[in-house]
Amino acid sequence: xGNAGFVGLATITKRRGRVIAVAAGVPIVALxxxxxxxLTLGGGSNKTPRGASIPAQDVVGSIGVNVHLSYLxxxxxxxxxxxxxxxALGIHNIRDGACPGCVEENQRLAQLGRQGxxxxxxxxxxxxxxxxxxxxxxxxNQLAPFITSLEGPNEWDNQGDPQWAKxxxxxxxxxxxxVKDSDKLRAKPVVGPSFVNPTSFQKxxxxxxxxxxxxxxxxxxxxxxxxxSNIEGELARAAAAAPRKPAxxxxxxxxxxxxPQPGNKPVSPHLAATYLTTLVLEYYRxxxxxxxxxxxxxxxxxxxxxxxxxxxxxxNADLKxxxxxxxxxxxxxxxxxxxxxxxxxxxxxxTLTALDGxxxxxxxxxRGDGSQVMALWLTSPDRKVHTVELTLDQSQPVxxxxxxxxxxxxxxxxxxxxxxxxxxxxxxxxxxPPGA
Length: 436
Fold this sequence. Notes:
- The protein is of the alpha/beta class.
- It has two domains: 12-53 and 345-432, Immunoglobulin-like (Sandwich); 55-336, TIM Barrel (Alpha-Beta Barrel).
- The protein has helices spanning 32-41, 56-61, 79-89, 103-114, 133-142, 164-180, 200-208, 231-241, 269-286, 323-336, and strands at residues 12-13, 54-55, 63-66, 93-97, 118-122, 147-151, 190-191, 215-218, 247-252, 291-293, 350-354, 360-366, 372-378, 386-401, 411-423, 428-432.
- Strands 1, 2, 11, 12, 13, 14, 15 and 16 form an eight-stranded mixed β-sheet that branches. It has an eight-stranded parallel β-sheet with strand order 7-6-5-4-3-10-9-8.
- Strand 12 and strand 13 form a beta hairpin.
- The two termini are 42 Å apart.
- The model is unreliable at 1-44 (pLDDT under 50).
């Protein structure tokens, strides 16, 4: 991308002084269903909608990351360091594949489970690559206290099986029955299979519609575009094939290296940080209850920068953090201040309007310390810096955070009721203390 290295800074122009967060307007794929969904959710606005805030910890709880703990010939062999990085990140969910014969992986998953991580476990495939279904159910039973969901085969439409649709449908039905027949597992949601081809879900949905509780998306933004570029279209496609069922994004993210491929280009590490922090907010706002970023660490060094698969990590292959890891850790830390929110959620304490009509999204959250956090981002970021006006219901000081830069406030606005914020590519968090 030509603009990959640019990260717009949100600076403050002081007026009479005060803050809040904001609205809609998404560029989406040209699908009729996507258009219908966009109109349903509300699009095209540059002004904050009113409505109760949500607990900030719900957003934190929606974030997960993919790991490969059985890949003992990769970076994941350094498990103590991997576990330490996971804990420091502050999230609570991981996704990995079942492997009944992988003793070390199972020990690692159980250890992370005891440390408070919930596991989305991919439950094998029609070929029995990592074990037969009864063995995989046995592994899941052992890990049951830590499992949050059980997932169908991973991207089976891209594994060279000429009869993939039939084999996948048969396996998913068997999997669902086996889970619901297990005393330890039946209460866990079953996530449907994931796909590479966007049309594959519709080919098997009629056969498996009763064999999953949650639809599955691998919703990588195309060509390193902004998170809002395709999420509504992905949700519309899932809703068409699985009406009235929620959808998880079990894989999504950006890569920071490797050769460009059709529909898949790398972005700079700094743009990945900007877009990934935006992505988890955008997805939660769009109604995705769980988003698993791909992946925690680059699996191997790629000194010639040729292999795209080796550059999706939040960590480099030496486990040093990329900017995206640091930005995500900052976001989680800011949202987690004060712990879980209790009591009634408050309405947003003001409004924010993009003065030049730029399409913006916001999410209003409430922390355990009683503060409101208004997250604000552009849906179609460009090289421009846009001015948004913040108007508060009553005069009060606020703090401005930019998680891509730091965990500490980047600006402190004194008591006032009006301010202007300069908004670039990166998301901005406006923190309003209790009493607003």
